[in-house]
Task: inverse folding
């Protein structure tokens, strides 16, 4: 008597070939951008090691520092009183270069295959991250070396986001996928957590390894990207996504009888053919001024500017704050700071799943996203919020010498401004929500009491 198929085999057979390829691409792109963020995080953990109170440590016998020197174990040039300003300069070397690079990276990415572009970006990012750590083993104490490395790393890291978003767009289109993309977008927090934990392993002994190990991992994933990344579903004879429409295409409008689950006007073959054709069409990238004319974009951008100011200040300065205020070791401070990103993992899927529940309220955002969905050039609009990411760590470095309380006053002010810029949009959504409830109530009344 033949035995039945094993449960694991039933599980594999439950998914189509297309589903397996899409799942693989989602996992690979998740891993790619996790590595990008993992390689950014070590600097925040190592800061408290670059400048520390050495009074409780035993000074080596052959050390030439004076007996009253409490910073002999710090790393020059960060052993001076202005170390917070210097560390802020190192942060901003990366962030300003990243902000500038986001405006131009898409133009290069459009002219190169994504697989080559991403692979080269990850290999170079791994190289520059490792070079920062090698400064420890090469006994380098010049500020310009660390600033130059951060500038180069910031530029090459701009290869990541536009490329992975474009690749995911090629495979999944612009259909309803909020929960899936919410889980996928947690790569930022996962990368930050991994970067903190890996850096914490070596920060108290040989802090150079806190950079070298993430750099090697990033470069290794770059090799995997070169070997396995598939840019288009058509490259492996998979069905293209069903929602590759342009910015003006309202694919989920229930008032259009040709759309939605009740439409049978297109056969599956016709739909696949149309989507295949659209997948290779070059869409017109929306201009910078054109993006600003879309209702709500300016307010959203300013809100994101201040929100990024807050989040990146925590990203780069939270471990040092914990170490200075709570007097934890560098490793303990880095490990505790990961709780900030744990909250991000929980929150992101909820944020991105809710908007897809109401198509009408987010039609303007869909227009902007649809216009640049398959064009890397359009991703330079992320530069609208990048100044906030650079401004936060810079202000933290300048303000923190006057007291950490002042840094938090700055962050509270930024949060308040972010909320204020959303007031008009929130008011519009409340009116639309009330209007929707009124329509639903009227429809139910008609159904209950037909004429």
Result:
């Amino acid at each position: 008597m033949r035995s039945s198929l094993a449960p694991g085999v039933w599980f594999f057979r439950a998914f189509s070939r297309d589903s397996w390829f899409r799942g693989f691409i989602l996992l690979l792109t998740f891993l790619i951008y996790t590595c990008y963020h993992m390689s950014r995080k070590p600097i925040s953990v190592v800061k408290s090691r670059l400048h520390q109170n050495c009074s409780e440590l035993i000074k080596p016998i052959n050390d030439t520092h004076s007996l009253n020197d409490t910073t002999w174990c710090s790393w020059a040039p960060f052993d001076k009183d202005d170390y917070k300003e210097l560390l802020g300069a190192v942060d901003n070397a990366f962030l300003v270069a990243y902000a500038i690079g986001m405006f131009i990276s898409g133009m290069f990415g459009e002219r190169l295959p994504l697989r080559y572009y991403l692979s080269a970006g990850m290999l170079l990012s791994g190289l520059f991250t490792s070079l920062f750590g090698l400064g420890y083993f090469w006994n380098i104490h010049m500020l310009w070396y660390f600033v130059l490395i951060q500038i180069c790393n910031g530029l090459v890291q701009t290869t990541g986001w536009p490329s992975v978003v474009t690749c995911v767009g090629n495979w999944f289109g612009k259909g309803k996928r909020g929960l899936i993309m919410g889980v996928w977008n947690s790569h930022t927090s996962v990368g930050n957590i991994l970067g903190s934990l890996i850096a914490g392993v070596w920060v108290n002994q040989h802090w150079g390894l806190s950079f070298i190990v993430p750099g090697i991992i990033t470069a290794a994933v770059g090799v995997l990207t070169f070997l396995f990344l598939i840019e288009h579903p058509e490259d492996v004879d998979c069905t293209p996504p069903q929602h590759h429409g342009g910015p003006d295409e309202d694919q989920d409008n229930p008032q259009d009888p040709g759309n939605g689950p009740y439409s049978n006007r297109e056969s599956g073959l016709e739909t696949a053919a149309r989507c295949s054709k659209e997948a290779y069409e070059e869409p017109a990238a929306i201009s910078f001024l054109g993006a600003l004319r879309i209702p709500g974009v300016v307010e959203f951008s300013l809100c994101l500017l201040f929100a990024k100011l807050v989040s990146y200040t925590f990203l780069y300065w939270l471990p040092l704050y914990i170490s200075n205020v709570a007097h934890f070791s560098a490793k303990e401070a880095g490990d505790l700071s990961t709780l900030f990103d744990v909250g991000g993992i929980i929150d992101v899927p909820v944020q991105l799943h809710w908007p897809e529940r109401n198509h009408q309220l987010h039609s303007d955002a869909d227009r902007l996203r649809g216009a640049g969905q398959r064009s890397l050039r359009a991703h330079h609009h992320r530069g609208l919020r990048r100044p906030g990411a650079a401004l936060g760590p810079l202000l933290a470095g300048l303000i923190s010498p006057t007291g950490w309380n002042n840094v938090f006053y700055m962050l509270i002010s930024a949060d308040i401004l972010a909320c204020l810029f959303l007031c008009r949009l929130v008011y519009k959504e409340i009116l639309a929500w009330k209007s929707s409830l009124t329509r639903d109530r009227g429809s139910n009344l008609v159904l209950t009491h037909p004429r």
Observations:
- The chain is about 65% helix and 0% strand.
- Residues 47 and 320 are 6 Å apart (CA to CA).
- The two ends are 65 Å apart (CA to CA).
- Residues 16-53+74-252+295-448 form a domain with the Growth Hormone; Chain: A; fold (CATH 1.20.1250.20).
